[in-house]
C-alpha cells in the first residue's frame, strides 16, 4: 500500500476517491473482502501523502456511480440496480449504446464528480 500510494501521489495532481464506508461493509457478507482489501488504510495513506506533497485529495459521493452512464450522464433502465445488480459486471447503456465495465464506469463517474467539485470551487476540507 505504501508503494502504491506513493506512486499515485507522485504521478497525479489530484486524487479523487469515493466515500466507501468500509465500516458499514464489514457488517455485510462482504466483510472478509473489505478487511482484506485494506481500503481505509489506503485512503488514509493517499490523504496524508497528498497533503504532504501539495496534491489535491477529495472524497466524493459515489452514490449511483456504477449506475450512471459515464458517457451520457443518464441512469438508464439497463444499468445494474441494487444487490441483484452486483453480479452484473458489464452493461450497455440503453440511452447512448455505450458499453461499460461496472468498476471502470464508476471510476470515471467519481473522477468527473471530483473535477466538478474543483470547478465549482468547493474547498478542500
Description:
The protein is of the alpha+beta class and about 120 residues long. It folds into 2 domains: about 1-60, no CATH class; about 65-125, no CATH class. About 45% of the residues lie in helices and about 15% in strands. It has helices spanning about 1-10, 20-25, 30-35, 40-55, 100-120; strands at about 15-20, 55-60, 90, 100. The strands form 2 sheets. The chain has a two-stranded parallel ribbon with strand order 1-2. Strands 3-4 form a two-stranded antiparallel ribbon. Strand 3 (about 90) and strand 4 (about 100) form a beta hairpin. Helix 1 crosses helix 4 (about 40-55). The two termini are about 25 Å apart.
Question: Features of this protein?
Answer:
4 strands; two-stranded antiparallel sheet; 2 domains; 5 helices; single chain; 125 residues; alpha+beta; two-stranded parallel ribbon; globular
For the residues shown, what is the average pLDDT?
86
Question: Structural class of the helix and strand makeup?
Answer: alpha+beta
Low-confidence stretches: none
Count of folded domains: 2
Secondary-structure element series: HEHHHEEEH
The amount of beta strand, in percent, is 5-15%
Shape: globular
- Please tally the β strands and state the result: 4
Radius of gyration: 16 Å
Identify the quaternary structure here.
Answer: single chain
Q: How far apart, in Å, are the first and last alpha carbons?
A: 24 Å
Strand order of the largest sheet: 1-2
Number of helices: 5
Q: Biggest sheet, open or closed, and with what strands and sense?
A: 2 strands, parallel
| Percent helix range | 40-55%
